[in-house]
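Supplementary notes for students who missed Thursday's class. We covered one full example, reproduced here. Read the sequence, then the structure, then the short commentary at the end.
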Amino acid sequence: MIELPAWIPTHMDYEGQKWAERLFQVIIVLFGVVGLVWGYSIQQFSQTVYILGAGVALACLLTLPPWPMYRRHPLNWQKPRSA
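Structure (token representation):
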């Protein structure tokens, strides 16, 4: 397993996960509809697939890395009790 340096963030908070999931779905649906309309208008299904593939790539780039916008609401954990 690869160990990342401590200064590289590897987490999202729950609100960030919700936002990332919603953004991913919107991008996929938007590119799917645009690709379907464009592909139908020029009668090339391959263009639909290419546009949808570009949407998937863009959505992955925007939602998979833990960007700072997905880490704005950290959880406040309780302090451990001393024994």
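Commentary. The longest helix spans residues 14-42. Residues 11 and 81 are 26 Å apart (CA to CA). If anything here is unclear, bring it to office hours.
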